[in-house]
Design goal:
Elements (H helix, E strand, L loop, with lengths): L1 E4 L3 H13 L4 E4 L2 H10 L4 E5 L7 H10 L8 E5 L5 H9 L4 E4 L4 H55 L3 E6 L4 E4 L18 H13 L3 E8 L6 E13 L2 E11 L1 H64 L4 H29 L7 E3 L1 H11 L1 H7 L2 E4 L5 E3 L1 H17 L8 E9 L14 E7 L32 H11 L3 E6 L5 E8 L4
Parallel strand pairs: 1-2, 1-3, 3-4, 4-5, 12-14
Antiparallel strand pairs: 6-7, 6-10, 8-9, 9-10, 11-13, 14-15, 15-17, 16-17
Helix pairs in contact: 2-3, 7-8, 9-11, 11-12
Amino acid sequence: MILIVDDRPENIYSLQKLLELNRYRVDTASSGEEALRKILKNTYFLIILDVQMPGMDGFEVAEAITGYSKSKDIPIIFLSAVNVEKKFIEKGYLTGGLDYVTKPFDPDILLLKVGTFYRLHQQARELNEMQKVLQDEIAERKNAQEALVQSLEELRSVLESIPQIAFTLNEQGHIEYVNQYWYRFSPDKSQFPDNDYTVIHSVAKAVEDGQPQAAEVLLKLLDTQEYRYHSLTLTPIRKQGQVVKWVGMFTDIHEQKKTTQLLEERVHERTKALQEANKELANSNHELQQFAYVASHDLKEPLRKIQVFSNMISSKFGHEQPEANGYLNRVVHSAARMNKLITDLLDYSKLAITDVYQPANFNTIILEIMDDMELLIQEKQAVIEVGEIPVIDAIAAQIRQVFQNILSNALKFSREGIPPDIRITADIVRDLSPDSITDAHGAYCRIAVQDNGIGFNEAYLHKIFVIFQRLHGRAEYEGTGIGLAIVKKIIDTHGGLITASSEEGKGSTFYILLPLKQS
């Protein structure tokens, strides 16, 4: 903005219009006192000042303006129609004016002078702004440098206080600083301890990649010549994304290394001993299985004779001695139970003998079992629905035992007066878990066998798969308590899982999970 100072309104008006037509903002003052008051409140880039005015003349006003710190740099153009002599022009320049224009003046020349002062004002303002930016940047760099120096001092204090060998490298990987422990392994800081290739390689790789490095090295103590294991870590310090320094650390891990080696040796020895023990145990188990098989097989022969001769005595003399005939019937029934028990034990002992896994059609196996149990199914008026089951790698004879036991139980433990309703379904799942989600590309098959029988309390779920465990008395339901134990052992041998859910009086559901393929 331009300030025009003149005591004559017609002079102010004509000059104001001239400047405003050329898009300059203009302010006016009719006296030197008013001009000084406005200069204290506003900012002007140029003052056009009349020389002759009542009160303070233009020279006095100029001296006052240049005496203020705020306005001392505002350029002043003196404008006069009377004081045109050389002495007045000299006084104008001496009191602070930068130009002296006499009236009448050429408007174009005056506008050129005003434009020049405006450009000078703009350049000065830009220079001031640039100077301020430079000052701020210098101050910021100074603060950053001071902070960096302080950080380095703190880092050195920390590195001196820790019990590890610590050092710093510049961005090229050259040693800058080492702490006191360095000199236990190296005579000076011009070289790395032992000049070990692993250390040099790690430093070179860190500098090349700009990434942290870690390595295990052997360093030699200068006083004892003892080699000790150390872990080397190199960590970059970055500024604005660039690595400016590296902090390195050698940490003594000698005792841990020796302890680890000793533990590894002991684990190796223990593993070897366990493998030998497992081999001996496997041999013992095999011998025990063979013994159980032979013993059970041999027990059947005298038992058969007990049954045969008991039946012969009963048929020949039973009508003469009714009481003795009752005892003989008890012997025959006990022998039959013992025969069933021995048969189940034989089946259980056979399960440990490995066989070859082959693709098995479960639907065919279940249909064959249903044919064998046709009379019992008709007697119970049972309904058995079987969904499509995929082909699974298995031992077919053992899978037959699984479904024979489960279906027999479903028929046996039916509710009085209610025909058994048994449904068998299957789906492919992702994991070996009863709750696994269905997945067409899964590795396991989940088979569910659901019935509407008497059910059982799930609190006893852990007992039903244990050998010789029964949830019902022999008087209520026949059985040896081995059937579900055989089922579980078969499923375990196949690398699968079996479980059940049930509610008393509402039936049970058995879940069998098997891998589709055997390795």
